[in-house]
Amino acid sequence: MTRQVFTDAIIAAMPPEGGYGLIPDGVIAIEKGRIAHLGPDLPAPYEGWPRDSLGGRLVTPALIDCHTHLIHGGDRAREFEMRLEGASYEEIARAGGGIISTVAATRGADEPELIAAALLRLDALLSEGVAVVEVKSGYGLDLETELRMLRAARALEQYRPVRVRTSFLGAHAVPADYAGRADAYLDEVCLPALRAAAAEGLVDAVDGFCEGIAFSPAQIARVFDAARDLGLPVKLHAEQLSHLGGTALAARYGALSADHVEYATDADAAALAGSDMVAVLLPGAFYTLHETQVPPVAAFRIHGVPMALATDCNPGSSPLSSLLLAMNMGCTLFRLTPQEALAGVTCHAARALGLADCGRLAPGLRADLAVWDVKSPGELAYRIGFNPLHRRIFGGQG
Ligand code: DI6
Ligand code: FE
Predict the structure, then answer these.
(1) Whose CA is nearest to atom 8 of ligand 1?
(2) pTM to 2 decimal places
(3) What is the 195 CA–ligand 1 centroid distance (Å)?
(4) Among 276, 187, 283, 297, which residue's Cα sits nearest to residue 233?
(5) In this predicted structure, what is the pLDDT of residue 91?
(6) 99-107 vs 143-159: helix axis angle to the nearest 10?
């Protein structure tokens, strides 16, 4: 069906400038997978189109998970136990566990195995109305496995109605055979893998992990220089466990986003605003790691920094496959308002991915919609462990 009118909808259009953009009794007309019209009334040209009542349900833009590590081998349930016995995330990482243990499992998995494991997690996201998922590499740390991860991420679109954006994260950790030689790893593995992945058209953005257990700002700058040469946008895991200056670095490169940012300062917030960047908040990692330093939400508000929320779905620091729970955590742990939480998984998440055609409801944009069995948008962040999705519409279908 190329033309369709949805009636009896409570529409939360999610304009990026703020508010829910609420239309309490609205209609949405869709043509060829795009929104043709939305508003309180149906203009004459759409009157003859096939109609479908949404029964007074809430319609929002379909959700966007703008930071995941969905593709990975194995699990780290044992490490979860170790942390509960008192070991810290950084101690486990330094002892060869952590990211490096997932690297071994990922290297040992072929592409169909990586896809099959990721589909289980992807289905959990889609069941909550997600339409766009960002997926990172970074558990290969060799050329072959980094490319395999990105191919597997892209292949997810063949198995499910979903849009995947890939980020190259070769600068995620220093592999064991390069211990103490991070720059050599960048020269010999990471940067050649980035160029090969870009040449194969597998990279939408370039990411890095700027942290004491990973890469310094100077090393990340080398990766960002390579990205710039390739014409690729950048983003960064910054200020997650300490303040190293990654946010300011990312701002200097005009990055799409700085992610985690628990240890970001007021000056960092100003730098993000000055570079039109998004702060991506990841409460699942904060929660899992028992962190206590909350991101400077008040400073982000004062400086007008858009805040996105994402799952960070990964086997170590955030084994979270629920974006609705990430919204609830964003409110309860970081004190976001329910409106900020919904904006964080719609309009601001789209911006964090550099996407202008989704994340809000407006004529001309993709008809990616989530229809919910609730009456007010604030309910989406409020309940815990309850999924009120009624229907997910992807590109006008569904
Ligand atoms: N920060 C994170 O929270 C994840 N990666 C990163 O750079 C953790 C990944 C992992 O522990 O496997
Ligand atoms: Fe991450």
Answers:
(1) 317
(2) 0.98
(3) 23
(4) 276
(5) 86
(6) 70
